[in-house]
Design brief:
Two copies of one chain form a homodimer. Chain A is of the alpha+beta class. Chain A contains ten helices and 13 strands. In chain A, the strands form two sheets. The first copy, chain A, has a seven-stranded mixed β-sheet with strand order 8-10-7-11-9-12-13. In chain A, strand 2 and strand 3 form a beta hairpin. Chain A is globular. At the A-B interface, helix 1, strand 2, strand 3, strand 4 and helix 4 of A face helix 1, strand 2, strand 3, strand 4 and helix 4 of B.
Chain lengths: 353, 353
């Protein structure tokens, strides 16, 4: 504790983002295969976006894959598996919602050192809750018992979505200055930033079974709250022509917005004060605001960017569809990058996980 | 060595298949959510088959997910990663071919303890080769650096396919007695049975860098040969009405056939002598034929079951499409299960991984 303490950053927590990006770049350059023949469908261009889009026959599908990451280690410490089971759905279907796709189904992948029926049942209950919330089906799954490869459990999945008749993918290309940025509330950390949080918790020896100051639930339960699923709310507005851009605020925090469009600046000048958990992490961990906003969702899990004339009606439809209170975060300006002027923060690159 | 040695089985190698199946059953019962609304598409029934089938809009998609499993540990021992990179594609697209779907694209999932650019580049080259061979696209991927969850690397993926206009899924419901069972050659072990093989190799202290008796390549390289990709060959015949059933001979060996139809018996009375690698594993490991045929592909990686009148023409089309020599393995009879009468083997259940 104290002022001399080295602040917690992702680099210090053991994840060297640059090394990951170099390795990934090598893989992607090597994997760039000749374009497959037309008979296998064709790409609907959106490289680097939340989901891969592909035209097959008379439909366009969206595919995305993600894991729950090191949040499972908190689940393991608490012996609670339902929340992270639900996260398998949330982390994936929200990425489908972020291109305007409606989820059709999900496949889960569970890697474990040993199959434990009670854990698996809890994961299954969480999956069921997430699937109901996303209105999507379990299309299959893979369970591998590989004690030589994993310690504990890894939870991941892949979701496939589609575009209902008449709907076009929403990729951010129509964003323009003066568009309004709306935010939907998150429920805590969702499934991002856990590598950073866990290292810090371990070093600080903070007990997971006791509430932090000002909270009622034990800290561990608060950390575990499942990723909020925005699918129904976004599906309710995705056919509106006034919706110009969508973003799931996942790994990479507000920098996710850069993925939508590099020819506008996202000015977030009214970001609401994040709830107590984020403030607690920042303060007790000595983590800079810059690191906080590029790592955590900071209370806003999903962003909808709309034409100014449509802002009020779209906010109302979102709320009617169960999105909770919709917050106006700011607007688009000429330039590029993401700016939180009241905090003195500017991000140029996505750099997310 | 010698007669008193306890034979190698999967149970002895550390994978308790029954415990896996109990745990999985708990998960699936818990995950059984209410049917999603029609607006999310609808299932095209084939539970327990190689791929989940789902009707979206005017198309049917097929989704399947699998990992390379413990074969990566052989890759690690040899420092060779291109083959298992290709396997990410093979293990998944062959499962799409097994329902008659044409692959559209794949997403890969790489979990690793540390990102290594050289390894990643090799995995990428393997992915590219597999994608070219399957004529499918890389739709996205997830790379997670999670040293607290994995040791080394886990490689997996999810593939999405579709049915070209006019083609129906081939699920085995049209199988009937006297249909002819054709086999396509495998290239070694593909990606199955490695947990068994590796434990045995370790105990026997067999060197991976030297050829087994009768082989030219080092044993490690022989074990690593990538999964043969049957996609183009199967795509060439999948519109033929005489094709009644398709099976990818993956984990579970010949028992995979039971997945197609429980109201016919698969009589495999002409299984060709498997190549030297399988004989070597069986003999040196003291592994029973029963265990061998329920664990490994035994030289046949894919099975095509056809109407008797169409057998010759379909075999010829498969060979012209690059399937290699097509072998007649037997025919369907009244009853159920899989029988290799010349070996005295009968399997009632799938029980695969």
């Amino acid at each position: 504790m104290g002022a001399a303490r080295r602040p917690w950053t992702y680099a210090r927590s053991g994840v060297d983002r640059r090394a990951v990006s170099v390795a990934l770049d090598r893989l992607l350059r090597a994997a760039r295969s000749p374009r497959p023949p037309r008979s296998a469908g064709r790409p609907v261009g959106a490289p680097g976006h939340y989901a891969g889009l592909w035209a097959i026959g008379r439909e366009v599908i969206a595919v995305t894959t993600d894991t729950v990451g090191t949040k499972v280690l908190v689940a393991d410490a608490l012996g609670r598996w339902e929340e992270v089971g639900e996260d398998i759905v949330g982390v994936n279907v929200n990425d489908l919602a972020a291109v305007g796709a409606r989820p059709a189904g999900l496949v889960d992948t569970i890697l474990c050192a040993a199959p434990d029926p009670r854990r698996f049942a809890a994961i299954g209950r969480g999956l069921a809750r997430g699937l109901r919330s996303a209105r999507c089906a379990l299309l299959g799954g893979e369970t591998a018992v590989v004690p030589e490869i994993v310690r504990g459990i890894d939870l991941g999945g892949t979701a496939v979505g589609f575009f209902p008749r008449g709907r076009r993918p929403i990729l951010g290309d129509r964003l323009r200055p003066n568009d309004i940025i709306l935010g939907l509330r998150s429920t805590g950390l969702h499934a991002n930033g856990f590598t950073l949080v866990r290292r810090w918790l371990a070093e600080e020896r903070l007990p997971l079974d006791r509430p932090r100051p000002g909270a009622r639930r034990p800290l561990g339960e608060e950390l575990l709250r499942p990723t909020r699923i925005y699918v129904r709310a976004i599906d309710a507005i995705a056919d509106e022509p006034g919706v110009h851009g969508l973003a799931h605020i996942s790994g990479g925090g507000v920098r996710n917005l850069v993925r939508l469009n590099r020819r506008v600046r996202f000015r977030l000048d009214q970001w609401p004060a994040p709830d107590g958990l984020f403030a607690f992490i920042a303060e007790r961990g000595g983590i800079s605001l810059r690191e906080m906003y590029q790592t955590f969702n900071m209370g806003i899990g999903f962003v909808v960017i709309v034409a100014p004339s449509a802002a009020a009606s779209i906010a109302e439809r979102l709320e009617r569809a169960g999105a909770g209170p919709v917050v106006r975060l700011g607007s688009l300006a000429p330039g590029h990058g993401v700016e939180l002027p009241h905090l003195g923060l500017l991000y140029d690159e996505y750099g997310g996980a």
